[in-house]
């Protein structure tokens, strides 16, 4: 299902500090957007607003997939990968993906086993996630997100801890599974967003 996310004069502040203000922008399925800006500018905050986790302090954010979605249902249509979202460390990789698919199914034809093969982590399938290296954890996070059968992918610093092969895997996954979806990449590293067709710089929304 195609998704449109429209922001109209959106503003977000923490206490008395505005992070962005007067931000009007429309995101559409089939496009990928880089959310850029320096450290602490508000990229993660912006993605949290788009995910429905943070409320705006002024203006509106509207999610439409044929009909307008109520904010409390938005999370079902979105998959999120971010350094501050945790994996379930007590589980093995296979257990984790099996658990995940009960509440967010994977794209058609994909099973946890097939996913583990595609991301080249067969040797770690039965290993507990707490024993993974940081790069292995990041691959697991990316897989959980990108293989989810949802129209919107939110990727915050998606190549954190990835080596060259991991970055190549990221590009392959984007190429194969992100095309018809709506993809937002929060990043200040071009390696992570070079495929994005549009840029939104949070710094452009700080004149208040
Ligand atoms: N829950 C919160 N309460 C108060 N202030 C917050 C909260 N979350 C973030 N901030 C502040 O909002 C600003 C934007 O933070 P955010 O994490 O969105 O930036 P970022 O652009 O993602 O940064 P980075 O590039 O370092 O990841 C920062 O000044 C941060 O301290």
From TrEMBL:
Short name of one Pfam family: ABC_tran
| Keyword match Transport | yes
The cross-references to Gene3D superfamilies, in alphabetical order and at most eight, read: P-loop containing nucleotide triphosphate hydrolases
Going by the entry's taxonomy, the superkingdom of the source organism is recorded as Bacteria
Q: Enumerate the spans annotated as ABC transporter domain.
A: 5-204
Q: Which UniProt keywords apply?
A: ATP-binding, Nucleotide-binding, Transport
MF terms in GO: ATP binding
Keyword set includes Lipid metabolism:
no
The protein in question is named ATP-binding cassette domain-containing protein
Can you name the source organism?
Niabella pedocola
